[in-house]
Write a structure and sequence with these properties.
The complex is a heterodimer of chains A (120) and B (216). Chain A is 18% helix and 22% strand. Chain A has 120 residues and is an alpha+beta fold. Chain A has a 4-stranded antiparallel β-sheet, with no helix packed on it. In chain A, strand 3 and strand 4 form a beta hairpin. The longest helix of chain A is centred in the last third of the chain and has 22 residues. Chain A is elongated, with a radius of gyration of 24 Å. Chain B is mainly alpha-helical and 216 residues long. Chain B contains 8 helices and 2 strands. In chain B, strands 1-2 form a two-stranded antiparallel ribbon. In chain B, a hairpin with a 2-residue loop joins strand 1 and strand 2. In chain B, helix 1 packs across helix 4, helix 1 runs parallel beside helix 5 and helix 3 packs across helix 7. The longest helix of chain B has 36 residues. Chain B starts with 9 loop residues before the first helix and ends in an 8-residue tail after the last helix. Classes of the chains: A alpha+beta (120), B mainly alpha (216). The interface between A and B is medium-sized, with 29 and 37 residues.
Chain lengths: 120, 216
């Protein structure tokens, strides 16, 4: 999503946004959890970070682990993106869609069948 | 125009499920009153498939693109079957295509299903306009267009109302409202398109298989 609003919540304070921003024209937003902007409280970088994106009633929320919470120590080098589609790979999705459509068609065929002539 | 998971608060999701439960009960009760539902099920099933696929068909309307909805068409052609059809279609859209969400299934079903029921009643108004010959192509076309148009337009307005009322405090409300209003306005040409398509389909069905159109 291009030009969508982005809120980043640090592990130290999940109620107040650590930073705010906007995605670029390609839908990307880059931030560094380790950076300490002037005027911002020094937020511990290790833990679960939350990213919320919203534009015109669409968007989503994702979390990712940084530092010790991610099972690593030392300097932080993490990037994350919101999942575009939570379901599956394109091929798997198309097969699933075809199966659902066939389910509807099969239901239609079942209920439109002509009754059998003979009596039981 | 599907509300995804995490956009609206839990209270709204619960209210959506409550309303969907009520309207599903009401629709099934009306279907039961009409008698044997068997002959209507093939039509309902095929149009549920069309509704399921429609959200994957995007139409570029600058500055972005919108997708088909067909809820008005379902209301006009299926009558009270349209509400359960939309609930089922939305369930599979959330599960497989990723449109909408399971927590917002109730909100989305109310947002699209109630206008579909209204579209059905708008389409039935032709019986009041001309009692002698309500199946005239001109009359069918006009009321089918209104059904298709109002079905989508009303859904867009409900969507706008819900998402504007639930913008979290941390977001810039002005920016979000502008984006929502722009998106809603982009649905006007789509509503005209779906209205026209509904009118053409209804006139076609009246010519080739008139028993498929829900009568009074």
């Amino acid at each position: 999503m291009a030009a969508a609003q982005v809120l980043i919540y640090a592990p130290s304070d999940p109620q107040t946004p650590w930073t705010k921003g906007q995605t670029d024209e390609k839908g990307y937003f880059v931030f560094d959890p380790a950076e300490q902007d002037a005027g911002q409280d020094a937020a511990p970088t290790a833990g679960q970070w939350e990213v919320t994106v919203r534009q015109a009633g669409h968007g989503g929320t994702t979390t990712f682990a940084v530092g010790d919470a991610a099972g690593s120590t030392g300097s932080v080098s993490t990037s994350s993106a919101l999942p575009g589609n939570p379901s599956a790979a394109p091929m798997q999705r198309w097969i699933s869609m075809a199966a659902v459509i066939w389910g509807f068609v099969g239901t239609a065929l079942f209920f439109s069948r002509k009754p059998l002539g003979g009596k039981a | 125009m599907h509300i995804p998971d995490g956009i609206v608060p839990a209270q709204v999701c619960l209210a959506g499920y409550g309303l969907t439960g009520f309207f599903t009960w009401y629709s099934l009760r009306q279907i039961d009153k009409q008698g044997n539902p068997g002959p209507q099920i093939p039509k309902a099933s095929l149009l549920t498939a069309a509704f399921f696929v429609a959200s994957s068909i995007y139409i570029p309307i600058p500055p972005a693109s919108v997708h088909l909805l067909l809820n008005g068409l379902l209301g006009v052609v299926l009558g009270y079957f349209s509400f359960p059809a939309i609930v089922i279609g939305l369930f599979f859209q959330a599960l497989i295509v990723g449109h909408g969400g399971l927590t917002t299934l109730g909100v989305n079903a109310t947002m699209m299903g109630v206008p579909a029921l209204l579209s059905y009643h708008i389409f039935q108004l032709r019986f009041l306009v001309d009692r002698k010959n309500p199946q005239r192509p001109v009359l069918l076309g006009i009321f089918a267009f209104l059904g298709g148009f109002i079905g989508l337009a009303l859904s867009a307005l409900i969507f706008m109302g819900i998402v504007i009322a639930t913008v979290p405090a941390d977001f810039n409300a002005g920016t979000e409202q502008t984006a929502i209003v722009t998106l809603t306005l982009m649905h006007i040409p789509l509503a005209i398109l779906e209205g026209g398509f509904t009118a053409m389909l209804v006139i076609f069905l009246q010519r080739v298989k008139p028993e498929l159109l829900t009568g009074r």
